[in-house]
Description:
Layout: E1 2-7, H1 11-22, E2 28-31, E3 47-49, H2 51-54, E4 58-59, H3 60-73, E5 77-79, E6 83-87, E7 92-97, E8 100-111, E9 115-117, E10 133-135, H4 136-144, E11 153-157, H5 161-172, E12 176-182, H6 191-198, E13 205-207, E14 209-215, E15 222-227, E16 240-243, E17 246-249, E18 253-255, H7 258-262, E19 287-289, H8 300-319, E20 327-332, E21 336-340, E22 343-345, E23 352-358, E24 362-371, E25 374-384, E26 390-394, E27 404-410
Parallel strand pairs: 1-2, 1-8, 2-5, 8-19, 10-17, 11-12, 11-17, 12-13, 20-27
Antiparallel strand pairs: 3-4, 6-7, 7-8, 9-18, 14-15, 15-16, 20-22, 21-23, 23-26, 24-25, 24-27
Helix pairs in contact: 1-3, 1-8, 4-5, 5-6
The protein binds flavin-adenine dinucleotide (FAD).
Flavin-adenine dinucleotide binds next to helix 1, strand 3, strand 6, helix 4 and helix 5.
Amino acid sequence: MRDVVIIGGGVAGLSAAVSCYDSGARDILIIERDSSLGGILRQCIHNGFGLHTFSQELTGPEFAERFITEVSKRSIDYVLDSMVIDISPHRVVYVNGKEGVITVDSQAIILAMGCRERPRGALNIPGYRPAGIFSAGTAQRLMNIDGYSVGKDVVILGSGDIGLIMARRLTLEGAKVHAVAEILPYSGGLKRNIVQCLDDYGIPLYLSHTVVDIAGKRRVEGVTIARVDENRKPIKGTEIHFCCDTLLLSVGLLPENELSSKAGIVLSSATGGPAVDDRLSTSADGIFAAGNVLHVHDLADYVVEEAAEAGRNAADYISGCHGEIKKARIKAGYGVRYTVPQLIRCDRTSPVTIRFRVSSVFHNASIVVLSDGKEIQRKRKRIMAPGEMESLKFDGISLSSELEIRIEVEQ
Ligand SMILES: Cc1cc2nc3c(=O)[nH]c(=O)nc-3n(C[C@H](O)[C@H](O)[C@H](O)COP(=O)(O)OP(=O)(O)OC[C@H]3O[C@@H](n4cnc5c(N)ncnc54)[C@H](O)[C@@H]3O)c2cc1C
């Protein structure tokens, strides 16, 4: 029986492993389906990682390497080319690896499987299925890891961070990025990526626009976009046509949670990840979650910070006694799309970081924390946007399970 099994060897899994070890657990196993550790960051060769964690601007592979080094220093076990195909609520992990399917028993599990891109099928774009349509992350992998060029004339649908980063990457490789179209009236990406990846290269961002037609049978020959109304319906007469050979889709990420739901873990409909308490513990006893599998993060720095917390909590869990603990519910109020955690233990005495995203763009607004309707904390913000994760340190008050903590935006 292992102390702790960590599923996923991205930076969440690596950071969780290091802090779990430093908190006393010794028999830790990281299970990774890919042929190397590092996760999605292996293909993110741009800089901009690690400003918070190391006060340095690193590339994705450099940032991941720092954690791989720490894992090696501690001689933490890991297996590669091994995919977890099932977990039981009693912490038995089924792994399909080089020796076939094996089972691993563990006292605690940390879920760190990351996320995947939303596919085209979910989008209902009319037209044929010509070559030249890629999700932005697939195009990134083809270019940065496999060394292929994906196209010369490109339109990007969706202004999430991956799409913005790929707009710059394609331009640097000599392609012409004609437009980024975003159905919402604001970008889903970080402000710094709009400036550094679009504005600096003169790439136009069409807000409140979507793709209404894709021309071409064998290969994409053109893409038509149109303005949408407040119900996101295309407005006739506003069409703009671009001759292009490639369409990239950057239309959102989904936490990778097939394993979690198969194990009966309660998922949050707002995040797509497990609902967790302030220890990042899921509804299944001894199973924790961190990183993009829990909720989609904007910065890798926040992923490693959160995962370190999950690692410490898993180590505490295996060394302590654990009984039924009463929890208060944290509710996302006006202007808040979700919070993580969603529950907080009533006996918690130390401050807890609550991460959340707002549902729209707010200028000069306040984040207010209410306990049964009574204000207990307030923080003023000049600007808040859905593309940027927000957080606040909740100081903790005497809680009871009947209490409802609500976080909302006040204009
Ligand atoms: C394209 C892109 C660009 C980004 N750019 C930036 C940036 O500029 N700056 C920044 O700070 N952040 C950026 N981010 C965000 C940051 O990279 C991620 O938030 C972070 O790397 C997520 O780490 P993770 O470990 O949760 O997930 P991942 O890195 O996705 O790792 C999950 C791992 O789990 C493995 N796995 C999944 N399922 C199984 C299974 N069943 N069995 C075994 N293994 C499994 C996967 O193979 C993978 O290695 C970017 C993200 C993307 C996608």
